[in-house]
Write a structure and sequence with these properties.
The chain is built from 3 helices and 5 strands, in the order E-H-H-E-E-E-E-H. The chain is of the alpha+beta class. It has a 5-stranded mixed β-sheet with strand order 1-5-4-3-2. The longest helix has 10 residues, at 7-16. The model has no long low-confidence stretch (mean pLDDT 95).
């Protein structure tokens, strides 16, 4: 699957210190995949952030087709329990 990082997502990723390779990894290997508004999808993974020295959640919001995933925006958060759906993958 092709992963296309849109201009806004690229800007936000750079501003938030999230590497493009990490975004692509999460899209291709999500721990969770959730529906979102406007026909979008959220893929997310838990990870340990070395800089923050704590577990974080990266969330990638995009539009998915069978051929590609267009990344609309991306962010990381320490509020894992707010976004993580228990009982899911």
């Amino acid at each position: 699957m092709e992963v296309v990082i849109k201009e806004h997502a690229g800007f936000e990723a750079e501003r938030r210190g999230i590497a493009e390779e990490f975004i692509k990894f999460v899209v291709k290997n999500p721990q969770q995949k959730l529906p979102s508004k406007k026909g979008r999808v959220i893929v997310q993974n838990k990870y340990y952030d070395q800089a923050e020295k704590k577990e974080m959640l990266i969330r990638v919001i995009g539009i998915e087709t069978s051929e590609r995933f267009d990344v609309i925006t991306v962010y990381k958060t320490s509020k894992i329990s707010k976004y993580w759906m228990e009982g899911d993958k």
